[in-house]
Amino acid sequence: MVADQQKLYEAVNQFRNVLKQIFGILLDARQGFHHLKEVNKKLQLKLLHEVPGATAATLDESPYFYSDGPPKHHPDDLAAPWLHGTTQGELKRRNLPGGVNDAFIGNMALVTLYAYWEHHYRERIASALGLQQAELKVPVLGDIRLIRNSILHHRAIALADLQRCEVPKWFRTGEPISISTDRFRQVAAQINEYLDRLVE
Prior knowledge:
The protein is 61% helix and 4% strand. The chain has 200 residues and is mainly alpha-helical. The protein is elongated, with a radius of gyration of 22 Å.
């Protein structure tokens, strides 16, 4: 029996909104990575026609810097207060689907989702159900906890305890962890199904 139906509805709806927001940020970021890669690709095509002797290889080795506002320094000035520096080639590689940025944002979306659950919504929903926080067990979120531990404590390499996962059985021990859009969508659907059952 639900101890406080109104509290339950409020907590469930707020958690649904957090889940939706995190998924939106994940999709926005991945679209942004693609856009940045395409902008750099177009810039390189332009430079190949405008810079004498330029090749795809030399452009990929050329520096790419982030600055605070419009650049005020020459790219070769290593003493300049750049916010971040890389090469054009590395910029393209890290923004590829499955690249460093793509893997990072997917993994951090899952880590963030679990943090909201464990440190805020699990206790609120449990309380509304008349339970202690530790008594509220949700298989998919328990599995996310295990995946999160491998992400944060094992450099996103699957630890052996991921073999205990009940719902998303995606990773074998020693495999790199990467949360694709499809994987996050599966998790979101499973969480929403659980929340639907709670408020029925």
